[in-house]
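Why do we bother with a discrete structure alphabet at all? Because it lets us treat a fold like text: something you can write down, compare, and reason about line by line. To make this less abstract, here is a complete entry for Restriction endonuclease type IV Mrr domain-containing protein. Read it the way you would read a sentence in a foreign language you are learning: slowly, and without expecting to understand everything at once.
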Amino acid sequence: MFRITENPPEAYINNKKVTLKYYSETIEAEIECNLSDLKEVKASDFPNLLTAIVNIDTGILVQNASMFMIHRDREAESFAFTIFFGHEPGAWGDKLSNKAIYREISEILSEKKLDGRIGIEYSGSEIYIFSNFHDTQEDTYELITETLILAQELIDTAESRLLGFKWKNGYNTNEDLFTKELVIPLIQKMGFMHVRYNHGPSEYGRDILFSEPDKLGNIRRLAAQVKAGEIKGGANSLIDTIISQIDDAFSMPVQGAGQSKTYHISDMLIISSGKISENAIKKINSKIDPRLSGSVFFIDRDDLDWLIKKHWPL
């Protein structure tokens, strides 16, 4: 709960003292606090006529943001959390103008169905990304954290569209993110056809299915198994899992999307966001059916860097 005392003038959130920057009984007061101070504070607890400058102390950063602020007008039924970005030439320096980022994020928001969860405005060469929260019993800390994460995702997507591909640290640990944001778009940019996300209980080691015509006019069917992080050659269950997945991928028929016909793949790609050690490749090749040794290919972070530069330039 918020509390402001007059004598002496002090501000508290859940009995923790925070900075009181300005106080008045008739116009808005202003405090400064950390995001972590807002844990277990209900959205409905945020007072009218109060502005809070929020320091993000939880490790959740929004690139190039200059200020974070909560604001509620007199008798308002909701309060706004706003992320500010500075003046041109822009927080993005010579790479992008604030206006370009604003236009791209606006376009992204028009494409996504976010149910009004977040908005963007542009005024006087500044960008404002904001969310409005109604009086609810929801935790203010959780609401703001969701906005911060969503805002960074919008910025990452806008930068990627305007500048080209940008590697995310999440690709090293999040297989689903790595697959959907990097591997599948890269395969499409390389000119493969019929690219299909196939991850699920009946994938049989084939996270992605795709194809291309060969020089004789036949269709070459391929599949990819995607892994986040490094693949090392030591004694570990991951190597055994990959070997089993390779066997399943070639032996089990694939049913075409919406079709009754089936087919078998001719080539298999093992794609990793980390390093695939030479020892791991040797172990896998030594344990799979020898007839498949020329049909299994390994692509790791070093290979991806080259492919991205060639097919998805910055």
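What the structure line is telling us, in plain words: The first helix runs from residue 98 to 111. The longest strand covers residues 126-134.
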